Amino acid sequence: NAGVTQTPKFQVLKTGQSMTLQCAQDMNHEYMSWYRQDPGMGLRLIHYSVGAGITDQGEVPNGYNVSRSTTEDFPLRLLSAAPSQTSVYFCASSYNGQDNEDTEAFFGQGTRLTVV
Amino acid sequence: GEDVEQSLFLSVREGDSSVINCTYTDSSSTYLYWYKQEPGAGLQLLTYIFSNMDMKQDQRLTVLLNKKDKHLSLRIADTQTGDSAIYFCASDSPSGGSYIPTFGRGTSLIVHP
């Protein structure tokens, strides 16, 4: 069982370039989310999705787009990379928390992005 | 929305107990979680507690929940150097109708000989 798979693991971009961070899960989870992790800031939610075709903004959405055309995939797009987007990005998936199911989040291994 | 707070650092001697504290703001949280992040890795669930419990024990780990004060703690008995990591508290408050967890900033646990 692969769980949550993120690619690439490392990426260097020039300012102004665009790219897509891939995230896929094979657990049939309804919820998927993207976080960025910066020193002293913990995990900040960028965008999330509660099901295919539904996305919403988190705490720090500016400069990022997402889409959820399938249950399995939740790509994160950087439209025009800026040095402030240098960070470690984590994708996570979880159940929807209905019927008192626990909502444990399963995380990918992270993508280390540097924008120069 | 939900706000989860925890201190940034904790330093303990090997063999002592560690206690990591967390506060949250949304009393409607159903589950509260502790995640562990080792260097260069993603977060992994360590343990969790359902909101109608006040204590949960799992080997060296003890989770205490005070719902009245919205305070959660993680106690690690006989702390080992392998316990050095960042520990994140998380709450699944259903604000906005979804259960996307809200994370604290993480507590870096440093275990020294």
Structure commentary:
The complex is a heterodimer of chains A (about 120) and B (about 110). With about 120 residues, chain A is an all-beta fold. Chain A contains no helices and 11 strands. Chain A has strands at about 5, 10-15, 20-25, 30-40, 40-50, 55, 65, 75-80, 85-95, 105, 110-115. In chain A, β5 and β6 (about 55) form a beta hairpin. Chain A starts with a strand and ends with a strand. The mean pLDDT of chain A is about 90. Chain B has strands at about 5, 10-15, 20-25, 30-35, 45-50, 55-60, 60-65, 70-75, 85-90, 100-105, 105-110. In chain B, strands 2, 4, 5, 9, 10 and 11 form a 6-stranded mixed beta sheet that branches. In chain B, about 35% of the residues are buried. The mean pLDDT of chain B is about 90. Chain B has no helices and 11 strands. Chain B is mostly beta strands and about 110 residues long. Helix content of chain B is about 0%, strand content about 55%.
Highlighted features:
heterodimer, A: 116 residues, mainly beta, 7-stranded mixed β-sheet, 0% helix, B: 113 residues, 6-stranded mixed β-sheet, 5-stranded antiparallel β-sheet, 11 strands, globular
